[in-house]
Amino acid sequence: MSALLESIAFNASVIKPWWANTEVERAANVRRFQNDIPSDEIAKAAGLDWRLLKTRVQFEGLIPEDFKLTEDYSSWVRSDTGTLVALNGPAYHAFQNEDLIRLCDALTREGKGSYLVAGVLDRGRKVWAQLDAGQFEITNLSGRRLAVKRTLFAYNSHDGSGRVIIKYATTFVVCFNTAQIAAAEGGASYKRKHTASIANFDDVQAGAREALGIGGESWDSQQAILQALAVKPMGEKVAREFFAALLTETTSAEDARKAALDLKDEGGRSYTIFAKKGARLVENFRSGLGNSGESFLDALQAVTQAVDHAEFRTDEWRAKNPIGAVDSALFGSGEKLKEQAVTLLQKWAA
User: Fold this and answer.
1) Residues 308-341: pLDDT tens digits?
2) Domain spans, the chain
């Protein structure tokens, strides 16, 4: 799995990846910077300085070595290595790396992105970037100020397995855990199918800004949401109930208790996993990075820490599948769990 991470560039003064100095780093092209990476440098630094090129597909007919061209599919290869990235039908439109960076730049207040991290996974099939879009502070129940970065996550699956996605994310500086916070007047993310043409980039930019609610009060509502969670008290009893609800995909403490009892009665591996995850989240709530076990925000950070640092996995699994955990935290089941945590916490805090 380590081969999945091809290249990455990041601000090492902020980002402290748990996989640093492991086989992942030795197998990948890793570049560290001591500051955010400027827009005009990010493509080369992160290994994103290539395009997808469309080539025709040949197939072997009934007669051996009798190859024929087909118009039904096209292969898409990288301009730098010639590696096959995708085999797609005529409706597919490539959203190039330069398009992703250009769109990210356009969505910042300055019109020029400042990048915390960007990279390439699985020989170019997936690429992602995270932009620094400013910083704010919130104050917790103890009066301590917490620095939070406002960021945008951008993601593209060149093989067509997923859409182009740009979404809000807030990042806690003390631990670099991330959580997607939907703006009050906008959606949580901008999603674009690969069947959509980008002939008019202004329309693409306008669609993204509208979907994300960028501009006005919607952009700043993330701070208000996190501040509300930071001053909403939560004891350990309620935290345990919340984590049980999150892990059992229920919405109330009563339903969570019933679901947990059902798992216990069934026994087996499912209950063991549930119990271990719950114990880890409670531990993070009490004493995780930046936590003091007193608020709804501590519960959110307990979840983000467990996901972003692959704490639900064993040390053996982490050693064998490091990028599997990174991939999950950014784009898969781990990110889904973080989104569910934000939604559920807001409901419980209301």
Assistant:
1) 776 766 666 555 555 555 555 555 667 778 888 9
2) 2-49+94-228, 53-88, 232-349
